[in-house]
Write a structure and sequence with these properties.
Structural class of chain B: mainly alpha
Helix content of chain A: under 10%
Largest sheet of chain A: 23 strands, antiparallel
Shape of chain B: globular
Radius of gyration of chain A: 32 Å
Number of strands of chain B: 11
Helix content of chain B: 40-55%
Shape of chain A: globular
Strand order of the largest sheet of chain B: 2-8
Number of strands of chain A: 62
Distance between the termini of chain B: 80 Å
Distance between the termini of chain A: 9 Å
Largest interface: A-B, 126 and 125 residues
Oligomer: heterodimer
Number of helices of chain A: 12
Strand content of chain A: over 45%
Order of helices and strands of chain B: HEHHHEHHHEEHHHHEHEEEHEEEHHHHH
Radius of gyration of chain B: 25 Å
Strand content of chain B: 5-15%
Number of helices of chain B: 18
Chain lengths: ~1000, ~525
C-alpha cells in the first residue's frame, strides 16, 4: 500500500518537482571465479539506460546521478546492485544458487532440477500463450513435447482434450491427472460447466509441470497412467515485504474465419433445375432468397476480461510470517454462435504462513468460481450448412415469424409441420433458452511440519475438497418448430413444448498424509525416503425432470416427458505409497517408488501394486565436465515403471450385481395397471486394474551457460489387461457388451525439446523454444481367445448420415480408431465413380470384407514453437504448433454430397460445393476413403506485440527537508494479441484440428483480436 | 520418549488408514439402483423384474425410446427385438424392401449379408439378452423363500414361456446356438453350442412341461400383456410345423392336432383391420379386455411404453413423401403427423392380392414394382403398406401422434387356421376341415373359396400374415427362400431377382460371439 500511496503522491507532486539533471559515469570490469564475464548487463535501474560487458568484461555507462542505482545481471548469476558512487572497480558475480537449484514440483514433494530422475518438463507463466483463455490447459498448447492439447470447439467454456504421449487406454479414461496446488482434481465436467478446469483463472497460474514417464507418475499411481499435469498457482512472496497490486484488463473481438463451402441460393437453384427440371415438384419447393445461413447464425463476438490481484506478507519474524495473495477475475464472453454467452467470476486466495521458527509451513488455497452460461443449440452449426439457402430467414406468414418446412396445408399445427425436414437454424437458436449456473469451490490445506529436534524428518498432511453445485433449465416453447419436431411432444396436432430442470452436486474429498526423511551422509550420500497414505471420495448427485410446457395438468399421464429422477453415485480410492531417492556425490541418482492402490470400483480385485525404478547420471558433476564452460548441464536418465488404471468410464459399480428401475417412458402394462420394470444390469465381478508399463530413456543438456538447453526422450509404453468395452459371449451375462480386461496396447515415441537464447544483449533479447514428438500407438491384442481370421474388430466412431453408421475400428495391429473404409475407384478424370470400390480381398465381390484400415486421427508428429523477441521496451511474441500425419473424416462433406438428397420427403437440403462434381446420384458414399483426408497443419496460435513501461511518471520527490527521494512510478504494459492467427493445411474443411478425427460441424474456433493493459503497483 | 511418540502416531495412522480401506466395499447409493438381495424380498419387486422380461420384447431400453439401449453395437431403434424380427423375417423376403442408407441394411433384402452384419447382430444379441433376463428371473425366483410371494410358481412359468419364445426365434433363424439356462452364473463364459435338432428336443420337452403343469394360466386366462398356455401351444405348434427342417423329422400331424385346440380357444376377430390399429388390445383374448383373436402380443403405448421399434417402426417407416412426383401419402390417415419413408412392398408380393381383398391395405401412389432400391430422390417405388396404423378402430385418433399405441400381435389364431390348412394340404390332417379353416380366413377378408393346395396356402399366409414376422420361415419350409424357383425384385441384389446360396437359409452366428465364445462353430457356408 505504501508504494501505491507514494506513487499517487508522485503523480500529484510531478508538476512541482524539479527533476535533478546530472551526469555521472561508472566504469569497471565484471568477473566470476573463472575470469571475465562477457555479455553481462549493466543497467541504470528504472531506466532503459544500459550496456553490456565487452570481451574483457569491461563496461562504461553514463548515468543520471551519483545516487542512481546500477544493476549488474547475467543469466546464471545472482544479480547485484550498487549506488553509482559506490560501484567497485571489479564486480565479482557469483553463481545463482537458486537458478541452479531450481525446484521442480513432483508428487508428494519437490525435487531439485538437477536431482530429477524422471521425464519432467516445466512451463513457466511467462512462456504461456497470451490472450483470451478461459481454460488453463489451452495455455499449454505446443509448449511441451508429447503434450497434445486440442481445444474442444469455439464455444465459450468448451473443454479441451489433453493427451500425453498418445493414450494408454482404449475405452478407459485417457486424460492425464491434473493436480492443482497439491490437490488432484476430477477431470469430469459438471452440468452447466463443460470444462472442469475452468475453476482456475489462467491469470493465477505460476507454472505447469508435466510428468511423463512412469518414474515421475508412478507415485500418483492410479489415474496417472496418462501422465500428470501439476499446476501451481501464484503465491505471495516471502522475500518481499511490500504490497503489490496487479491489474489487467482486456477487450477482444472474435470472428469466424472460414465457412463450410456450400452452395449459394442461386447455385442451388441451378443445380436443382439440372437435377429435377424446373417443372418438377422438387423445384417448386425452392424460394427466391439467397440466404447465407452460416452468416445468419454467427456473429462478431466481444469478450471483456479483467483481473486484479493483491499480494503481500503479514508478519516478519522467524516465528511467524505469512505471504498472501488474493485475486479476482471477471470474464464476460459472447460466443460467435448467436445466443451463446458465458460470464465467469473467479476468486482465489492463497495463504502460506510459516510458524514455529519455520518448522511448520502451511499452504492454504481457496478458489471459488461462479459461471453463468447460455448455451446455443450447436445443431444450428450443422443446420446452417444444410438448410435451404433459397429460403428467407424470416417469413411474415411463417411459424413465429420464421420460415419453416411445412406440408403446405396452411395451419400452424404439428400435422402440417414437415418433421422430416431440417429446422430453421435461426429459429433453433432463438426459440430455445438453455441456461445454467455453476458454482465451484476448490480448496486445500497442506501442513508441512519439520519435527523439532529432528529436522530431517517432516510430516505432511493435505486435506482437500472440490465441491461444485450447478443448476440449469432448457425451455422449448410450445408449438415452436423444435417442439413440433419432437415426437414425444406431439399430441392432437399440437406440440407441447418442454421445460427441463436439472441440477448437480459434486463433492470430492481428499486426505493425504506422508512423512519424508532426507539427510546427507558423509557429505556425499544423499538419501530421501518418503512414505504415505491417501484416501479420496468422489460423490456425484444429479436431478433432472422434463415436463410439457403447454399447461398440461401435472396429473395427466403424459405430463412428464421425463420423470423427475435423482441419481447418486460415489466411489473411493485408497492408496499406500513410498519413495526412496539416493544420490551419490550429486552424480549418480536412483529413485524407487512403490504404490498400492485400491478402488471401490472392482469387487474381487480391488488392489493393484505399481512399482517403478529410475536412475540418472549427472555427467556435468563429473570431474571432466565440472569446469567446462561449454557444457553447463548434462544428464542421462533411464526409468522403468508401472501405473494402473481403474477409471473405465462406465459408472462406479461395474463389478457388482445391481438392478435399476426403468423410467416412466418405459413402463409395462399388467392388465390395466402399469408396472415399472426392474432391469438387471450387466456386470463383471472379475474386473481388475489395467496396467501400463513404461520404459523411458532420456538425456538433458545445457550448453554455454544454458543459452542452449534441451532434452530428448525415447519411450515405450505397454498396456495390458485393457479395460475394454467388448462383445462378450451371448447369454453369459445380462448384456452383450461388457467391460472386461481384454487386449493389449503399445505406444512408442521420441520427444525432443530445445530452448535457445540466440541473442541476449542490453537492448536485444531473443528466446526460442521448440519441441517435437513422434508417437505411434498400436493395438497388439483385442480378444481373449485367439482371433479368428474374419474378425475385423470393434466398430467405433459414429457419423452423421444414416442411423448407427460407424467409420472407425479398433483392430489388432492397427492404431486405435483407425478409419475403416472402402478404397474408392476413380475415373480417368480423377472423379470418384459412384459405388465403385476396390475388391481388396480379390474374392470377386465388393462387400464389407473389402473394407480396410486407412490412417487414423491421432498425429504421428506434433511440434510446438514459441519465440519472444525483445528490443528495449518492445516485445514481440509468437507461438505455433503443428501436427503431421493426422487424418480427418470429412463428415460435413460426406453427408452433403449426395445429389438425390437434394430433395427428399418434400424439403430441400443444401449440398457441399463438390456434390455436382462427384455426381453421386443414388447412394451416399459414407465409407469411401475419399472423405478421409490428410489434415496435417501448421497453426500460428498467437502473436503478441507488447510495449512495457516501467517507472512511468517516475522522478525525484523532494522531501520536506529538501532531500530527494527517487520514486519508481508505475510499471506495466500495453499489448495487442491475435489468437488463432493462421492455419496452413491441405484439409478442405474449416478446421483440420479435430479430436477424434470426425469433422461433423464443430462450433468453429474463431480468430480473436485482443487489446489489453497490465499495471503493476 | 520421542521415538515412542512417533511410533504411537505411526500406529494410529495405520489403524486410521485400515478403517478407511473398508470404504472400498461399496453398495450403490442411487435411489433407482438396488442390490438383488435387497430387492428380491417382496412380491412387488418380483413383479417389476418379471415386467422387464416382457418389456425386453417391447422396447429397446429401460429409459424410453432413445435412452441407453439394452444391447450395444447397433443403433437403439434397430436393436429393438420385434424390429429385428421384422428385419430378419420380412425384409429379407418377397414382402418388402427398405430404402435407407443405414449401415449394411441393403444386404438384408439383397440376401448378401455376412457374419458382421449389424442387423443380424441385433437379432442375435436381442434373443440372448431376452433369454438372459428370463434366466436371471428364474434363478432369483427359485432361490427365494420369502413369505407372501404366492405367485412365484406362475411367474417362473411365465418367464419360461417367454424364454421359449426367444428360443423359438433362435432355432428358426440361427439354428445351432450357444445354450444357457438358469443354472449358469452371470459372468463372461459362453455356453456350449447346441445343435438345432437337440434344441428342438429341449424346447419340445420344456413346452410339454409348461402345458402339463397347472401353474401357467390356461389359454386366455391371464391378464392383458402377459403370457399363458396359448403362447406355449403356438410355439409348440410352430416347432411341429417346421420339424422337417429343424429336426429332420416331419411332424405335421402333431401340429394339426395342436392347431385344432388353439382354434377352439381363439376365434377369428370380425374385422381384419382392427387387429393392427391403435386400440388392437381390444382383440387380445386375455381376460382384461375379453377380446378374441390375439393369442399373445407385445404392447406399445404412446406415453408409457415407447420405442423406435416394434409397431412404431411398422407405422412410421411405411410412409412415402415425394415432392418431385407431386404426390404425397397422407400420413394422418395412419394416425401420425410425419413418417420416416422407408418400407416398400415388392410388386411380386402385392400382385398376390385382389383389389377387393380387405387385407390389401396399400398406398398405391407409386409404381407397383420396385425397379430401384433407392432412387435419385432417396426413395424406392413399390406400394407402401398401410396395414399397421395409429388410429383407433372407430377412426378416432390415438392418444399421441409421436409414438403409437398399437400392440404387436406376436401370435394370433388366423395363423393357426392356416397352419392347420397347410398340414391338411400336406396330407397330415383332415382336408375338409383344412379347407374350412382356409375359407374362414379368406371370408373374413371378403374373399371367396380357394382350393386347398400347398401353393395356395403359402400365398394365403403371405396375404394374411405379412409384416408380422413369419414370411421367411414359411418360404424356407416351402423350399423357396433361396431357390431360383421363386424370385422377387432384388432377391440376390439384382432387379429381376435370382437364386442365392442355400447357406442363407440360416443366418450366421454374429462374428463378435464367435470371438468371445471359443465353443462355437459358424453355421455352414459363412
Amino acid at each position: 500500500m505504501k508504494r501505491i500511496l507514494t506513487a499517487i503522491a508522485v503523480l500529484l507532486a510531478a508538476c512541482v518537482t524539479v527533476l535533478a539533471q546530472g551526469e555521472y559515469q561508472v566504469k569497471g570490469v565484471v568477473v566470476d571465479a573463472m575470469g571475465p564475464v562477457i555479455g553481462a548487463t549493466v543497467v541504470e535501474q528504472g531506466t532503459s539506460n544500459g550496456t553490456t560487458t565487452g570481451l574483457d568484461g569491461d563496461y562504461l555507462l553514463k548515468v543520471s546521478s551519483a545516487n542512481a542505482m546500477i544493476e549488474i545481471s547475467c543469466i546464471g548469476y545472482a544479480t547485484q546492485a550498487f549506488k553509482a558512487s559506490e560501484v567497485p572497480a571489479v564486480i565479482t558475480l557469483s553463481e545463482d544458487a537458486e537458478f541452479l537449484d531450481e525446484v521442480v514440483v513432483i508428487g508428494y514433494g519437490t525435487v531439485k532440477k538437477g536431482d530429477m530422475t524422471g521425464s519432467v518438463s516445466t512451463v513457466k507463466a511467462d512462456q504461456l500463450n497470451k490472450g483470451v483463455a478461459v481454460s488453463p490447459t489451452s495455455l499449454l498448447q505446443g509448449k511441451s513435447a508429447g503434450v497434445v492439447v486440442t481445444s474442444g470447439s469455439g464455444a465459450p467454456g468448451s473443454a479441451n482434450t489433453i493427451r500425453i504421449r498418445g493414450g494408454s487406454s482404449l475405452n478407459a479414461n485417457n486424460n492425464p491427472l491434473i493436480v492443482i496446488d497439491g490437490l488432484p482434481i476430477s477431470e469430469v465436467g459438471v452440468s452447466g460447466m463443460e470444462d472442469p478446469l475452468a475453476t482456475i483463472n489462467p491469470a493465477d497460474i505460476e507454472s505447469f509441470t508435466v510428468l511423463k514417464d512412469a518414474s515421475a507418475t508412478a507415485i500418483f499411481g492410479s489415474r496417472a497412467s496418462n501422465g500428470v499435469i501439476i499446476i501451481t498457482t501464484k503465491k505471495g512472496s516471502k522475500h518481499d515485504n511490500a504490497i503489490h497490486l496487479n491489474f489487467d484488463a482486456t477487450a477482444s473481438l472474435s470472428q469466424n474465419t472460414r465457412y463450410v463451402d456450400v452452395l449459394t441460393g442461386d447455385e442451388l437453384r441451378a443445380l436443382m433445375a439440372k437435377q429435377y427440371g424446373t417443372d418438377s415438384g422438387a423445384y417448386a419447393l425452392l424460394g427466391n432468397a439467397n440466404t447465407d445461413w452460416q452468416k445468419e447464425v454467427f456473429q462478431l463476438a466481444r469478450t471483456l476480461e479483467s483481473n486484479v490481484s493483491l499480494s503481500g506478507k503479514l508478519g516478519k519474524t522467524e516465528k511467524f510470517y505469512m505471504p498472501w495473495r488474493l485475486s479476482l477475475g471477471i470474464h464476460d464472453q459472447n460466443g460467435t454462435l448467436k445466443t451463446s454467452k458465458l460470464t465467469r467470476e473467479t476468486l482465489a486466495l492463497a495463504l502460506t504462513p510459516t510458524l514455529l521458527n519455520e518448522h511448520l509451513t502451511v499452504n492454504l488455497n481457496a478458489k471459488a468460481m461462479n459461471i453463468d452460461n447460455r448455451f446455443a443449440d450447436t445443431g444450428a452449426v450443422g443446420g446452417a450448412v444444410k438448410y435451404d439457402p433459397t429460403k428467407p430467414v424470416r417469413d411474415p406468414d411463417g411459424l413465429n415469424g420464421y420460415s419453416w418446412w411445412n406440408n403446405g396445408r396452411g395451419t400452424f399445427t404439428v400435422d402440417n409441420c414437415n418433421t422430416m425436414a431440417g429446422l430453421n437454424p435461426v429459429a433453433l437458436l432463438n426459440d430455445k433458452v438453455d441456461v445454467a449456473n455453476a458454482k465451484r469451490f476448490v480448496g486445500n490445506s497442506q501442513f508441512d511440519y519439520k519435527i523439532h529436534g529432528f529436522e530431517d524428518l517432516r510430516v505432511n498432511l493435505n486435506l482437500g475438497i472440490d465441491y461444485s453445485k450447478s443448476k440449469g433449465s432448457v425451455d422449448v416453447a410450445p408449438d415452436s418448430e423444435q417442439a413440433m419436431h419432437s415426437t414425444a411432444q406431439q399430441a392432437n396436432n399440437h406440440a407441447s413444448g418442454s421445460h427441463n430442470n436439472y441440477s448437480q452436486i459434486r463433492n470430492d474429498q481428499t486426505l493425504e498424509v506422508y512423512a519424508d526423511y532426507s539427510h546427507t551422509f558423509a557429505g556425499k550420500h544423499f538419501v530421501d525416503a518418503m512414505a504415505g497414505y491417501s484416501w479420496s471420495h468422489y460423490y456425484n448427485e444429479s436431478y433432472s425432470e422434463t415436463f410439457k410446457a403447454d399447461g398440461t395438468d401435472p396429473s395427466d399421464p403424459s405430463y412428464y416427458l421425463s420423470n423427475p429422477r435423482t441419481f447418486k453415485t460415489e466411489y473411493f480410492l485408497v492408496s499406500f505409497f513410498g519413495r526412496l531417492n539416493y544420490s551419490f556425490d550429486n552424480r549418480y541418482l536412483i529413485t524407487g517408488t512403490i504404490r498400492r492402490d485400491g478402488t471401490s470400483r472392482f469387487a474381487n480385485n480391488k488392489w493393484g501394486l505399481f512399482p517403478s525404478v529410475a536412475a540418472s547420471w549427472n555427467a556435468k558433476n563429473e570431474k571432466f565436465l565440472r569446469d567446462s564452460r561449454v557444457v553447463s548441464a548434462l544428464k542421462l536418465r533411464a526409468s522403468w515403471g508401472q501405473t494402473g488404471q481403474q477409471d473405465l468410464q462406465a459408472g462406479n459399480y461395474p463389478s457388482i450385481a445391481t438392478y435399476t428401475y426403468n423410467t416412466n417412458a418405459c413402463m409395462f402394462p399388467f392388465g390395466t395397471s402399469y408396472i415399472t420394470p426392474l432391469t438387471p444390469d450387466g456386470y463383471n465381478a472379475d474386473l481388475k486394474w489395467e496396467t501400463t508399463t513404461t520404459i523411458n530413456v532420456g538425456l538433458d543438456w545445457g550448453f554455454l551457460s544454458d543459452r542452449i538447453t534441451g532434452s530428448v526422450d525415447v519411450y515405450q509404453r505397454d498396456t495390458k489387461d485393457l479395460l475394454n468395452w467388448t462383445p462378450i459371449a451371448a447369454g453369459a451375462n445380462l448384456t452383450n457388451y461388457l467391460n472386461a480386461n481384454i487386449g493389449n496396447l503399445r505406444n512408442r515415441g521420441v520427444e525432443v525439446e530445445l530452448n535457445l537464447i540466440p541473442i541476449e544483449t542490453n537492448n536485444w533479447s531473443w528466446k526460442l523454444g521448440m519441441n517435437a514428438a513422434y508417437n505411434k500407438t498400436v493395438i497388439t491384442r483385442l480378444t481373449s481367445d485367439d482371433e479368428r481370421e474374419d474378425y475385423h474388430g470393434v466398430d467405433t466412431g459414429g457419423i452423421s448420415g444414416g442411423v448407427g453408421n460407424n467409420i472407425q475400428v479398433h483392430q489388432t495391429g492397427q492404431a486405435p480408431n483407425s478409419f475403416y473404409v472402402y478404397k474408392q475407384v476413380y475415373d480417368v478424370n480423377g472423379n470418384p465413380i459412384e459405388g465403385a470400390y476396390a475388391d481388396l480381398n480379390n474374392d470377386g465381390v465388393v462387400d464389407a470384407k473389402d473394407k480396410y484400415c486407412f490412417h487414423k486421427a491421432a498425429p504421428d508428429w506434433t511440434f510446438g514453437l514459441n519465440t519472444q523477441l525483445t528490443w528495449k521496451n518492445w516485445t514481440l511474441a509468437a507461438s505455433a504448433h503443428a501436427n503431421i500425419g493426422n487424418y480427418v473424416y470429412n463428415n460435413v462433406m460426406s453427408d452433403c454430397d449426395l445429389l438425390s438428397d437434394l430433395s427428399t420427403n418434400s424439403f430441400v437440403n443444401n449440398r457441399y460445393s463438390t456434390a455436382e462434381k462427384h455426381n453421386f446420384q443414388n447412394y451416399a458414399q459414407y465409407w469411401s476413403d475419399m472423405y478421409v483426408t490428410d489434415a496435417s497443419f501448421f497453426k500460428l496460435d498467437n502473436v503478441t506485440l507488447q510495449y512495457s513501461f516501467s517507472n512511468l511518471l517516475d522522478g525525484y520527490y523532494v522531501n520536506g527537508d529538501g532531500s530527494k527521494t527517487y520514486n519508481k512510478g508505475l510499471n506495466g504494459s500495453i499489448f495487442f494479441t491475435v489468437n488463432n492467427v493462421a492455419c496452413i493445411t491441405g484439409y478442405k474443411g474449416i478446421d483440420p484440428e479435430i479430436f477424434g478425427g470426425i469433422d461433423n460441424n464443430m462450433y468453429p474456433r474463431p480468430r480473436t483480436y485482443i487489446l489489453g493493459v497490465k499495471l503493476n503497483f | 520418549m520421542k521415538t515412542l511418540k512417533y511410533i504411537a502416531i505411526a500406529v494410529a495412522t495405520v489403524f486410521a488408514a485400515a478403517s478407511c480401506v473398508k470404504d472400498l466395499d461399496v453398495t450403490p447409493i442411487d435411489p433407482n439402483v438396488e442390490l438383488p438381495e435387497n430387492v428380491l424380498n417382496n412380491q412387488e419387486a418380483f413383479t417389476s423384474l418379471l415386467a422387464k422380461c416382457y418389456q425386453g420384447l417391447a422396447s429397446s431400453s429401460s429409459a424410453g425410446e432413445s435412452g441407453d439401449p439394452d444391447i450395444h453395437g447397433v443403433d437403439g431403434g434397430f436393436g429393438q427385438y420385434l424390429r429385428a424380427v421384422v428385419n430378419m423375417q420380412e425384409l429379407s423376403t418377397d414382402v418388402m424392401t427398405c430404402c435407407w442408407n443405414d449401415g449394411n441394411l441393403f444386404d438384408i433384402h439383397n440376401m448378401t449379408w455376412n457374419a458382421s452384419n449389424e442387423f443380424i447382430l441385433s437379432m442375435y444379441y436381442r434373443i440372448f439378452y431376452q433369454i438372459s433376463l428370463c434366466n436371471e428371473f428364474i434363478r432369483q425366483s427359485q432361490k427365494t423363500t420369502i413369505a407372501g410371494y404366492d405367485l412365484k410358481d406362475q411367474y417362473i412359468a411365465e418367464a419360461r414361456a417367454l424364454r421359449l419364445l426367444s428360443w423359438y426365434h433362435a432355432i428358426d433363424m440361427f439354428g445351432n446356438v450357444p445354450f444357457c439356462d438358469e443354472t449358469n452364473t452371470v459372468g463372461s463364459t459362453g455356453g456350449n453350442q447346441i445343435l438345432r435338432a437337440d434344441l428342438f428336443n429341449w424346447m419340445e420337452k420344456e413346452a410339454g412341461e409348461l402345458l402339463s403343469s397347472s401353474v401357467l394360466p390356461e389359454p386366455g386366462m391371464n391378464e392383458y400383456g402377459r403370457a399363458d398356455k396359448g403362447l406355449v401351444q403356438m410355439i409348440l405348434a410352430k416347432l411341429y410345423l417346421n420339424a422337417e427342417i429343424w429336426k429332420g423329422v416331419p411332424m405335421y400331424d402333431k401340429c394339426a392336432a395342436l392347431c385344432e385346440t388353439i382354434i377352439g380357444e381363439y376365434p377369428l376377430h370380425g374385422t381384419y383391420k382392427d387387429l393392427f390399429c391403435a386400440d388392437n388390445h381390444l382383440c387380445s383374448a386375455n381376460t382384461t379386455y375379453g377380446g378374441d383373436e390375439i393369442i399373445f402380443l407385445s404392447p406399445q403405448d404412446g406415453n408409457m411404453l415407447r420405442s423406435y421399434g416394434s409397431t412404431n417402426f411398422l407405422v412410421f417407416a411405411s410412409t412415402w413423401s415425394n415432392a418431385d412426383a407431386g404426390i404425397n401419402m397422407d400420413v394422418t390417415e395412419i394416425g401420425i403427423s410425419s413418417g420416416w419413408s422407408g418400407l416398400s412392398l415388392t410388386g411380386t408380393f402385392t400382385s398376390k392380392f385382389d383389389d377387393t381383398d380387405a387385407r390389401a391395405l396399400f398406398y398405391k401412389g407409386v409404381p407397383q414394382y420396385i425397379d430401384y432400391l433407392r432412387n435419385d430422390i432417396g426413395a424406392s417405388n413399390g406400394w407402401k403398406p398401410m396395414k399397421f396404423t395409429n388410429v383407433n378402430h372407430d377412426g378416432s385418433p390415438a392418444q399421441a401422434q409421436g409414438f403409437v399405441d398399437t400392440d404387436f400381435p406376436i401370435f394370433r389364431s388366423a395363423d393357426a387356421y392356416l397352419m392347420y390348412a397347410e398340414c391338411a394340404a400336406r396330407g397330415s390332417a383332415d382336408a375338409t376341415l383344412g379347407q374350412n379353416y382356409l375359407n374362414a380366413v379368406r371370408n373374413r377378408a371378403g374373399m371367396g373359396t380357394l382350393a386347398l393346395n400347398l401353393p395356395n396356402v403359402l400365398d394365403e399366409r403371405a396375404r394374411e400374415l405379412y409384416m408380422e414376422g413369419h414370411r421367411r420361415q414359411d418360404l424356407i419350409r416351402f423350399g423357396l427362400y433361396t431357390s431360383a424357383d421363386y424370385v422377387w425384385e432384388f432377391k440376390g441384389g439384382v432387379q429381376a431377382g435370382e437364386g442365392v446360396d442355400a447357406k442363407y437359409n440360416l443366418f450366421p452366428i454374429t462374428v463378435g460371439d464367435l470371438n468371445a465364445n471359443g465353443n462355437l462353430t459358424q453355421n455352414p457356408g459363412y
